[in-house]
Amino acid sequence: MGLALLPASAALAQDATPGPWPQALQVPGGVARLALGPAPERPVVHAGDIPVLVLGDASAWTAIVGIPLAAPVGQAHVSVQATDGAPARRIAYQVAAKKYREQRLNVAPRTVDLSPEDQARYERERDHQQRVMATFSTPLPADALRMRQPVPGRRSSSFGLRRVFNGQARNPHSGMDIAAATGTPVVAPLPGRVIDVGDYFFNGGTVWLDHGGGLLSMYCHLSGVDCAVGEQLATGQAFCRVGATGRVTGPHLHWGVMLNRSMVDPALFLPA
Ligand SMILES: [Zn+2]
Cross-referenced Gene3D superfamilies, in alphabetical order (predicted)? Predict the structure, then answer.
């Protein structure tokens, strides 16, 4: 499928590089890091009506903003709530163009032209997952959001690809695929709490983790789940297994990372 592979030495070579993570990349599917300046209390920031993660301390706060894949190119903004009753302050930033390639895949026809029953199932699951995605919890994650790769293996650079399944255009690819054999244990990339476990039409066996402050991660096409909703996981703790369930062409981990309900490129959280 045209995977762009990183040499094995790249991860080690980059480990000494100072942060910050996630890296800023102001494109659709990227992340903006917006300096908010000093303030005695953590500022409350929204993108539209969606709360945004704010990290730092009283000497300097930073908003970590997920930019949706569907974001228009040009100026975007967040609003910073005032503490003294004054109007909210707007902070503008620029979203640059990024041209994502097209990827054509052949999958089981029933996963592209859905039967009425499968369509109804998909719609129920979509509504459920939208509720999962709205999670915004405390405590907030620590300032260092450098993630551990959840399975060893070759990372594809397939985030954002415009997808054509069996000749029909579908939503862009909103995660990173990592090649690994069925049964390979998947580990938590950061401390997190299990907030959803399911078996979904497109995503197959799926687990969602909540890392706090609207930073979520999802793991799809699993062959097995070794955790339960509510469980707290430490970085590196195994909680599920790679598989080939749902709409896939073969076994791999689909890994998604979400900030303020926007799927962003997981590579921005990894050291290389
Ligand atoms: Zn994928």
Answer: Glucose Permease (Domain IIA), Peptidoglycan hydrolase domains
Residue 177 Cα to ligand 1 midpoint, Å, equals 5
Q: Rounded CA gap, 83 and 15, in Å? A: 39
Q: How far apart, in whole angstroms, are the C-alpha atoms of residue 234 and residue 156?
A: 25
**Amino acid 85: pLDDT:** 76
Distance CA 232, CA 190 (A): 11
Query: What element of type H or E holds 164?
Result: strand 162-165
DSSP, collapsed to helix, strand or coil, labels residue 168 as strand
Q: What is the pLDDT of residues 93-138, one digit of tens each?
A: 999 999 999 888 888 888 888 999 999 999 999 999 999 999 999 9
- Is the distance from CB of 187 to CB of 161 less than 8 angstroms? no
Q: Token pair of 193, please? A: 């709490």
Which helix H or strand E contains 131, and what residues bound it? helix 116-133
Cα 221 from Cα 200, distance rounded (Å): 9
Q: How far is the CA of 206 from the centre of ligand 1 (A)?
A: 12
Give the distance (Å) from ligand 1 centre to CA of residue 255. 7
Distance 167 CA to ligand 1 centre (A): 18
User: Which is nearest to 27 in space by CA: 57, 62, 69, 61?
Assistant: 69
- Sign for the CA dihedral angle at 259, 262, 268, 270 comes to positive
- Find out whether 113 and 130 touch, Cβ atoms under 8 Å: no
Specify the amino acid at residue 142.
Answer: A
pLDDT tens by residue, 32-67 = 999 999 999 999 999 999 999 999 999 999 999 999
CA of 175 to the centre of ligand 1 (A): 6
Residues 252 and 245: their CA atoms lie apart, in Å, by 10
**Which of 253, 212, 205 shows the shortest CA–CA distance to 227?**
205
